[in-house]
Amino acid sequence: MKPFLQxxxxxxxxxxxMLFENISFTVFEGAKVALIAKNGAGxxxxxxxxAGKESADEGLITxxxxxxxxxxxxxxxxxxxNTVIEEVFESDNxxxxxxxxxxxxxxxxxxxxxxxxxxxxxxxxAWAIEVEIKQILTELKIxxxxxxxxxxxGGQKKRLALAKVLINQPDLLILDEPTNHLDLxxxxxxxxxxAKTKSTLLMVTHDRYxxxxxxxxxxxxxxxxxxRYQGNYSYFLEKRxxxxxxxxxxxxxxKNLMRTEIEWMRRMPKARSHKAKYRVDAFQELKDKASQNIxxxxxxxxxxxxxxxxxxxxxxxxxxxxxxxxxxxxxxYKFQRFxxxxxxxxxxxxxxxxxxxxxxxxxxxxxxxxxxxxxKFGYYRxxxxxxxxxxxxxxxxxxxxxxxxxxxxxxxxATQMLTHFLFPPETxxxxxxxxxxxxxxxxxxCTVLMQNPNFLILDEPTNDxxxxxxxxxxxxxxxxxxxxxxxxxDRFFMDKIVDHLFVFEGEGAITDFPGNYTVYRNKVEEDExxxxxxEAKKKAEAKAKSEAAxxxxxxxxxxxxxYNEKREFEQLENEIPELEQQIGxxxxxxxxxxxxxxxxxxxxxxxxxxxxxxxxxxxxWLELSELG
Length: 628
Description:
This protein has 628 residues and is of the alpha/beta class. It has helices at 43-50, 84-88, 94-107, 111-124, 127-139, 154-167, 184-196, 208-214, 233-267, 277-290, 351-358, 393-398, 414-420, 437-449, 467-478, 491-497, 517-550, 563-590, 597-627, and strands at 3-14, 17-28, 32-36, 58-63, 69-72, 172-176, 200-204, 217-222, 225-229, 313-322, 325-334, 340-345, 366-371, 377-380, 403-405, 411-413, 455-459, 483-487, 500-506, 509-513. Helices cover 45% and strands 20% of the residues.
């Protein structure tokens, strides 16, 4: 395999903080690599070094000659004075320059230029790339081509930057959290796009379904060590557990040996200076190994919620619109104790508006929202919180409360809460400006839970949190003794947490779907396939009628089935009902709520495969029935 990118003995400090030291790895041609590390370990800083945006304090980065790199960074570097169409086509590639000229000529209806540039498009064979560019822009919903970059929202800028990187078709694609600010449909499209692209890929992402389906190699960075796993996320989880178990066993053995050596060191003082010097040296090595602390850090969030009364939140015939946009129309719902609801829908369909109605930040145009007397909201907002960078970590939490007091009389201090959130005592007195983006999001989550809510509203809580923190947040939410409403594009997170979904369909319509996200997507795909099948059947029937009308005088000779075709037809008549029954049983199992997320994913794939088989068999049955 050809090495595309090599990192040798890299070290990087940020002020007094050592992010990573003396790390080395190689990205080979054709690999699709994910980088996994805890928040604050320097993932984004490392990508900046590899992309040439920053310089390493020590070490060497080698990019193989002629390898073209594309870098999608968390904060896009865009020209605010450009229009979107100018920015998205900014490239040294001659084909892309020609496509840009063609699109601008079309946008301004310059017929003479269109004709001349079309000839050049033919010459360069650039039409295929023009089609792909349009597909990328369409899928990422970039339809504001004449707008200035400076006028775009943060999410629009992120999508524009992503489109710009993909359009250039680099040999090596480096992506830092590419799924942030994308809706679920965009993520599924990007997942399919990256899975089939020929570009070599190195990315940081917290989206575990995305990671599992796209990547074939994992690089884990932990305690200045690099661990490589030749497989996807599922394989990584399995092998990482094995690695930690082996390390813990090794440390345990070293500690037992160390106890023996300590006894020897105490009893044999004269030997230390003469014959047994080698053993003294070995003792020091053993001491270093035995003192290692393999921490599979977890955010232990066992905070109990405040007591819930009988009335939770009740919505009666609620409607909300803004000029020209109907977001919620005549929606009624009564929340029950301990239920967990996921909210899905395209951008602009009213998801955030709904959350603001629940918390009474907005008032409905019509209808009533009644909040129970015992309800205490905890609202984790997508935009986060503006911390004072000169404030210390402990101060940010103590401003909310010194202690959380529970119904049973117990309490938890701010220091204890922060320790649970992986802020050890020595870092609690650091300034917030020294925290990474992910660490600040974790601190924000801590401040929300410090309020001891019993109705949690989480708006995109997974953005910028590392996978280890997400795992424990999920465990916490599953046992949370209160209500949870969550908006998230993280399908894995949604599948583990929610009992049912509010699907925002647009034009004010909200559907209550009884199942998690994977079950919902399977149902949507099933409906789409059925619709496509019915449309194909109608077209075939219309075509047959048209052909029959065009040749009324010609006698139709009906071909008879051969012996083998009769056998096949009879077999299909038995197989199709059996397959339909199996699909029904599998759908019932998926809707039962008795499967864990791994089983759910496996059964979903099995269901897709069985439905494809059924489509093929039904089409073949139709062909044979027309002959027979």
